[in-house]
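Help! Submission page says 'invalid entity' but I think these are all valid:
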Amino acid sequence: MSEAAISRLPELERVPWRPLADARRLDRLGLMWTGWTIAHTLPFIAVAVALMSLQPLALPVALVAIAHAWIIPELYAQRGANVVRPRSTAGPGKAARHPAEGIAAGLLGDLVGHAPRDLHRSTGLVLERGRLGAWVVGEVGALLFRPGGRRVHCYCVRVNDATLPPADRIAHLLLALRADERGFATVANLAFVGAPWRVRRRLPPELRPALDAGRELAREMGRSAAADAGTALARVAPQ
Amino acid sequence: MSRLIRMDQTGHTTLAEWTTQDPAAVEAAVEAFRRELDRGYFGMVPAGEGKAEQVRELPVDADVVILRLPISGG
């Protein structure tokens, strides 16, 4: 790092109350979200079961309780999926495009490799390998697949300039992510944490390949980490 | 030839180009860089695969310096 380089995102100064994100904190957040989902769901299911056991004629009310148990987690997952939905008219397959999208996509293409460039062309999203996991970055948000690919953290994060072409918006996020991944995950607002399939089925089909690529990269990272841990264990274990 | 690029509504704009052998061009680039920092932009230098550095001063030996705006939680 050069002498003039800044190690932390300056944007962190705007959120001084937030602890800096790290792997342990992210895993703890994942567990908390799972707990919250259960806490939102179980009482409604319990009410439905209790009503049916007390009075079978209460079936309609029990069904309403079951519907609540289903809808609340669905709404959270929808919120998660929304972070990578394209906001502009320049989404993949859309006719209307920002006039400068081609130029911006060229600059973004220079920042990423061949495979992420192709993925961006087809989905409008960019795949990035980080230390905390595999990132899928969109115009107004990013998904973080933790190593192993069992959980996805969905973040709302954006550059506040509506005139920018979508690829430039992604490039802004990508550069900030690359400069300070932990700072990026701290500045961004967490919208949802949960199983990737819950987010995937709420995404338009054309965006799903990006999500699949993110999950696959995270699985690969998980396997590499497990292999490294096994090797380290074999070194220290008594013969 | 090094370039100072600002991401903006036109895709991007090249604000300055310089070589280290041309002090006048370097000075113009440094001036342009400081002006953009004063406008609220941040200077970023791509530093290899998956890495970037945020800089306060123009690194004159960098191939490309990209100016970005602040980000925030949505």
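Support: the input was valid. A stray whitespace character was the problem, and the output above is from the cleaned input. The CA atoms of residues 25 and 204 of chain A lie 30 Å apart.
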